[in-house]
Amino acid sequence: MKITYNPSTTALTQTMPLPILTSNWQRIYIKNTGSFDLPPSMEIKKGNYPRYIDETTRIEGFDVKQITAQQKGVNELSQTAFKRHARVVLETKYDSRNQFEELTFNIFKYTKSYTDELNAVYKDQITKDLRATSHKLSEWQPVQLERVNGMSCIHVSYISQLNQNPKVLVHKYVFQNSDRVHTLTLSYRLSEASYWESDFKTILKSFRINTSRLAD
């Protein structure tokens, strides 16, 4: 669900500087979106991703609207890798300019009745999406408007399950950014929380969205 752009909204803060890269981690850059860090236990899903090089910083990154990271070893079809399950998905969708809120919109201007409406819309849509892939919604947490690394977002959290397979914990962070929306989805098996939880908190803390953009 869109939160309609309001030109009178005052941004609270700017996004935070990039954190220090954790030892043995990899920083993933995405053109006109931003970056996030990956632990050595994860890898970018194999695919023919276009690359770019920033002319100013000479940093190499991916020129994509969507990118997925998974537990390390899946690309090589390692049997050990399939004993775990984790995903990081970053997707950007575009719309007409200024259709959405600014990246740092004031989350406190929205009433509880409005967040309740957001909650109902997201729950209905996600339930339908899960059913379309034979999954079920096992548990739902109320949608929250939050600040993450100086950026405002809609936080959606739930547990899904496919048949009798292990339950999966999902966190979606939806960041509106004027003419685009960035969705960062973090998920892993609930039974593997002790293995993934700490690293996934670091991944979220590392996520930054560019406020300046290269030519599309």
Secondary structure elements and pairings:
Blueprint: E1 26-30, E2 34-38, E3 42-44, E4 51-53, E5 60-62, E6 66-71, E7 86-94, H1 112-132, E8 135-148, E9 151-162, E10 168-177, E11 180-189, H2 193-206, E12 208-209
Antiparallel strand pairs: 1-2, 2-12, 3-6, 4-5, 6-7, 7-11, 8-9, 9-10, 10-11
What does this protein structure show overall?
This protein has two helices and twelve strands. With 216 residues, it is of the alpha+beta class. The chain has one domain: 3-Layer(aba) Sandwich (Protein Transport Mog1p, Chain A), CATH 3.40.1000.10. The strands form three sheets. Strands 3-6-7-11-10-9-8 form a seven-stranded antiparallel β-sheet, sandwiched between helices. The longest helix is centred in the middle third of the chain and has 21 residues, at 112-132. The chain starts with 25 loop residues before the first strand and ends in a 7-residue tail after the last strand. Mean pLDDT is 91; it is low at 3-14.
Strand order of the largest sheet: 3-6-7-11-10-9-8
- Major pleated sheet: 7 strands, antiparallel
> What distance separates the N and C termini?
25 Å
CATH architecture: 3-Layer(aba) Sandwich
Number of helices: 2
CATH topology: Protein Transport Mog1p, Chain A
Mean pLDDT: 91
Broad structural category: alpha+beta
* CATH superfamily heading: Mog1/PsbP, alpha/beta/alpha sandwich
Number of strands: 12
Strand content: 35-45%
Share of helical residues: 10-25%
Determine and state the CATH class: Alpha Beta
Indicate the radius of gyration in whole angstroms.
18 Å
Q: What's the overall geometry? A: globular
Instruction: Name the helix and strand elements from N-terminus to C-terminus, one letter apiece.
Output: EEEEEEEHEEEEHE
Total count of domains: 1
List segments where confidence is low: pLDDT < 50 over at least 5 consecutive residues.
3-14
